[in-house]
Amino acid sequence: MASTAAVPFWRAAGMTYITYSNICANLVRNCLKEPFKAESISREKVHFSLSKWADGKPQKPVLRSDAPQV
């Protein structure tokens, strides 16, 4: 027997926790004053690599940057 009373509001709104967390982080960053705002925005950038697998072996990785568009 499941109860909806214990469901977090972000889940009830149809969001994932990551989406909710990103929205909260953006709100906090936008509320900061300079120079803290510029410093926090520079830490927001994420770099990662993706490798596709073929025949059980990784192919050449592709470097990606998931930086917000300004």
Automatic annotation (TrEMBL):
**What is an example of a GO molecular function annotated in this UniProt entry?**
proton-transporting ATP synthase activity, rotational mechanism
The GO cellular component terms are: mitochondrial inner membrane; proton-transporting ATP synthase complex
The reply on keyword Iron is no
**SUPFAM superfamilies, alphabetized:** Epsilon subunit of mitochondrial F1F0-ATP synthase
Q: What's this protein's family per the entry?
A: Belongs to the eukaryotic ATPase epsilon family.
Record's PANTHER family? ATP SYNTHASE EPSILON CHAIN, MITOCHONDRIAL, ATP SYNTHASE SUBUNIT EPSILON, MITOCHONDRIAL
Q: What does this protein do?
A: Mitochondrial membrane ATP synthase (F(1)F(0) ATP synthase or Complex V) produces ATP from ADP in the presence of a proton gradient across the membrane which is generated by electron transport complexes of the respiratory chain. F-type ATPases consist of two structural domains, F(1) - containing the extramembraneous catalytic core, and F(0) - containing the membrane proton channel, linked together by a central stalk and a peripheral stalk. During catalysis, ATP synthesis in the catalytic domain of F(1) is coupled via a rotary mechanism of the central stalk subunits to proton translocation.
**Subunit structure as annotated in this protein's UniProt entry:** F-type ATPases have 2 components, CF(1) - the catalytic core - and CF(0) - the membrane proton channel. CF(1) has five subunits: alpha(3), beta(3), gamma(1), delta(1), epsilon(1). CF(0) has three main subunits: a, b and c.
What is this protein identified as? ATP synthase subunit epsilon, mitochondrial
What gene codes for this chain?
LOC130503613
